[in-house]
Amino acid sequence: MNKRVFLSYSSHDAAAAMEVCRALEAAGITCWIAPRDIPGGADYGDIIDKAIIGCGAFVLIFSAHSNASQWVRGEVNLAFTENKPIVPYRLDDAPLTGAMRLILNQMHWLDARNDSNCKELAVTIKRMLNTTSTTNITNPITQPTTSTPNVNVATKRRKGLRISLWILATLIVTGLFGGGFWFSQRSNDVKPEEPSVAVVDSVAVVQAKRDSLVQAKRDSLAQAEKTLEAERQKHQEAERAEKERIRKAKLAEERAARERDSLQRVLQAKERAENERKRIQHELDSLERVRVEQELIAKQTAERLAREKAEREAAEKAARKAAEKAERERQERLAREKQEQERLAREKAERETAEKAKEAQAARKIYKVGDLYCDKAGRKGIVFRIDATGEHGTIISLEEPANNMEWVVLADKETFVAIKASSRSNGALNQRQAMMQLQYASHYPAFVWCMTRKGGEWYMPAIEELEIFLKDNSLLRTINAALKKNGGIPLSNKCYWSSSEVSARKAYSIYLNENTGNYSSEDGKWTRNSVRAVYRF
What we know:
Layout: E1 5-8, H1 14-26, E2 31-32, H2 44-54, E3 57-62, H3 64-68, H4 70-81, E4 86-90, H5 98-104, E5 110-111, H6 119-133, H7 148-189, H8 197-363, E6 372-374, E7 380-386, E8 393-397, E9 405-406, H9 427-435, H10 440-443, H11 445-451, H12 463-466, H13 468-471, H14 473-485, E10 494-501, E11 506-512, E12 519-524, E13 528-529, E14 534-536
Parallel strand pairs: 1-2, 1-3, 3-4, 4-5
Antiparallel strand pairs: 6-7, 7-8, 8-14, 9-13, 10-11, 11-12
């Protein structure tokens, strides 16, 4: 039975979730929590699916954020489908809604605000794990024990003692009856004669001897019975002592078995710790060798660069003198050419300014939020932000990719890096930072999709360019209505990437839904979200 506990939570409650994880593991309960237990580069959804299926219990850290989280609802639904024990652990007074209410409404809840250091939660989980694991324990009464030979020896000893006592009693009774029969035969053999004093005395003597012998036999039989009773009592005491000894022997054997198992576990844990220490030491030795090699390479590179710099400076100094004369002559010629070019440029600029003024006068157009924007280059989108004049603003694309995309895709053994796309308000600047990366085309699919829209100059919006929908839900309804009217895809019930980077591993995203509300969050760059492109006109 797997005794690992899966912790489900919203990214907004990450600090509280880690506190619960540390408290449970301090109580001896093994926990699985994302992203700590997710290997680098692994598929987020596949790993979480396997962790929930293989866990022994499912703890939901419930709050207003987790109630609105699509990920948390999916995890709770999977745990319910797999018939996992679910323990809801409440952080605030947020009400249950939707699928959460259907699954968790009838369950017993624990309140974190009344549970110091998660003690009640730890006791509940331990009881739950122990209850589910006892169904596989074999009944110890049916198992053979090593004390069976002692029981057989004691049984044989008791049978031999009973047989000896019965033989002794039989011999005593047989002797008593044999003596009486002999005396009766002797008395029957005496011939009847006329009584005389001598005969009477002789008969009296014989009778007295017989009575004395019978009394002696009776006394002997009574003594034998007493001896038999004493032996029987001794035998019973011996049986009780033997049973007590066997019981104590069983207890001692069970205690010794438990101690052996405990010692075996301690030795195994010690062996694992020693293996881990050796592995870490090996890695440290490898890192030290790599560091020494890198220092040597850096020293050799610095010396080579210094020599090349000295040679380059000498060549430049020699060439500088030769070029100064040619430079003076060139400067004079350029000055003359520059004067002529400036005259021509002034004339051209004046003509172009006049032409642009005429074109602007003819093509000037005023937009408002929700209008469809189209230009000669083929760009098309819905206006969601304008300036005071109404001539300039920002549009959002009508379409989005058919499948969700990662912010960044890494190959095996590659690590996450920050690309300095940290602007919260200028998505075009973040787009340029992504395009400067060496493996831009293969590693940044969301940015590539935005940039390749018809007409060019599209980009993935920054977080503040998307957060205007958080501040005004009526704006989201207006834009969605315009998207539907013009054959576009509405912004609804989805999580969209922004181009604003949080760290090397995370970027900002926003969840949009006209009915349940909108919120922004920080997602791992490997997460698959939807994407929309924007363009400033």
